[in-house]
Amino acid sequence: MKKIFKYITLSFFGISVISCSDETVLDLSPINNISLSDAFSSPSLIESSVNGMYNAAAIGQYNSTNPNGGRGYIWGAAFVQQGDNRGEDVVNTATFYQLTYTATYDPTTANNVYYWVDGYRLINRANLVIEGVTTAAEAGIITQAVADDYIGQAKFLRAITHFELLNFFARPYNFSAGASHPGVPYREVGIDTQAEIDSEIVLGRNTVAEVYEKVLQDLDDAESLITNTSLTKASVNAAIAFKTRVYLHMRDWDGVIAEGNKLIGEYALEDSPNGPFLDSYGNSESIFSLTQAATMNPGVNAALASQYNRRRLVAISPIIWRDPSWLADDLRREDNSTETEVGTGMVFTAGGAKFTLKYKDGVNYTDASPVIRYAEVLLNMAEAQARKATPDLGASLALLNQVRNRSLADPGTQAYVAGDFANAGELVGAILKERRIEFLMEGRRWSDIHRLQGDDLQPINGIPQKVANGTPAAELYTLGTPYDGPYGVPAVPYADFKFLWPIPQIEVNANPTLAEQQNPGW
């Protein structure tokens, strides 16, 4: 990797990685830094190292020389914004994510480059934590139980970050027989010596199958090792929930159901669809979210409430707003905004356009970044029940209604019934549409577009066409008919090389192996 990590620096947020070019690796610790060997020399410093790992997940570094100078890459806010803007259910209103939205990126596009760079920075942080706490436990500095908890949390972050990168830089699991096509490099070594730099910098891409195998092994390890139960750090339940997402992409329907069943009784949907966002740290359905606070967030250039609320850089698209499956009186349309106040609902109107109000603190940007909620686990299971070898359409319908009914004005008359669907394909279609509505502005759309290429029941061909970049006119939001144009961003066929992001130029410049493994067309 072009950027490597030799020292850990102490900051307000914990311990964060300083990146240095391989030509300027420091030989001595500056006075305000501590070496890696010292960073794992006491329980308090080890805890700070782990906290620093989460800081790297929530904020990242982007192109800053400040270890805390990032823009929410990769799990703070960027995964929401990138996942939304790659799909058709939002409209990018300005230039911030325009290249992502219009698929006009290249190997030097900053928002895509630093998805990779900050992703691997986080992975390296996780690997350093795994190695550091292992050594500390062997030396008796911390107990093995404490070490196991930290190792499990680091393996969780390592797994989900590789999986996230896979969905942007590689074709989906079912693209080739046995998923034997190129994935991403799965890095399991903490880079902190020249020898490790020399060996790791030439590693190439694992196959997609190999990445999935390693992701699931890390998540299984996380499930067996973690004792933490807090929302904003990895937990056993977070590992289980994330496995339902991974198995969904693998089309392992029984795996989805088996993992989802483990969480029955552990979580409950909020009575209101607004509940998870009115209290993003204290609700009953959020499984894993990352802390954002007045003193700990990526600020005006990346915090969710900055981008989606105060600055209004991403609008709800008329494409999903006018979809007939989203009933006109659905509570997720709640809009009590005025010309001067955004209100407390789930949507607000500005200049005639519709914007999400899931992220409510437009002053201090303290809304948690939602990585996975119980509603997703239920819909993952609903889809799996309808798709498995012997479909259980009754169980699938019940799970779908469990999520959808809480948003209906009159569930008694508006809930789906078995007669609404002629076959499993139609029921899966309703589940997928519900995912688009329920997780709107939570970054989930690209994940579904990616996995549904060539699907047997509800196929998507590439990236759908979108409304033109810019703020949509008020009249485009008029309900009553499905949206049929105008469009301004053409579809990207699945066969088009732009369906995948290119491996960043700075990475292929540094790694001759990856230079030979660049995604075709780039």
From TrEMBL:
Q: Boundaries of each RagB/SusD domain copy?
A: 355-522
Query: Can you name this protein?
Result: RagB/SusD family nutrient uptake outer membrane protein
Q: Which part of the chain is the SusD-like N-terminal domain? A: 90-248
Domain of life where this protein originates: Bacteria
Kindly give the Pfam families that the UniProt entry links to this protein: SusD-like_3 (PF14322), SusD_RagB (PF07980)
Q: Which family does it belong to?
A: Belongs to the SusD family.
The answer to keyword Signal applying to this record is yes
Q: Which residues form the signal peptide?
A: none
- Which SUPFAM superfamilies does this one have? TPR-like
Keyword Membrane recorded: yes
